[in-house]
Predict the structure.
Amino acid sequence: MSNIFPTDKILLRADKEQLLQQKGIAIWFTGLSGSGKTTIAITLEKELHNKGLLTQILDGDNIRVGINNNLGFSDIDRIENIRRIAEITKLFVNTGIITICCFVSPTEEIRTIAKNIIGKNDFIEVFVNTPLEICEKRDVKGLYAKARRGEIKDFTGINAPFEVPAKPAIELNDTFSIKESVLKILDKINL
């Protein structure tokens, strides 16, 4: 398919990053529901904002009620969910925005799809490695209880698998405080 507009006439990513005085990257949080992905991401976003950096959080809750509200949790729908999110993330990154993505993204295949779309040099995978028992205790939405009662099918960690990332750029666990987690990320991304 050919481009519908002349790409040689649009502003380049470098032009936008120069304007913002920052480099666009994707910080991709993965982990079980309730692991702390969004909580850490919100604190990270505030820290980056305080440093004068432009950010955008993309989270499963806000994406699934909007652009992906027509998708369920089958394997095919999970792949399409992440594919769309990765395409959106790539647009933000190419605009120079630090994009913080919080998605269970339960398989290595799905995370690889996201990394390939966004670009491996712009993709920082953060694995929030919180044990299932702790995630269930934190479950304010009652999703784990519903999954255990059979009311939710294909729920990651209960009746759908979660594959531990092979080589995440950053691994956090439940022994780190939120502040320690954010400092570990900031140290790695060096912004």
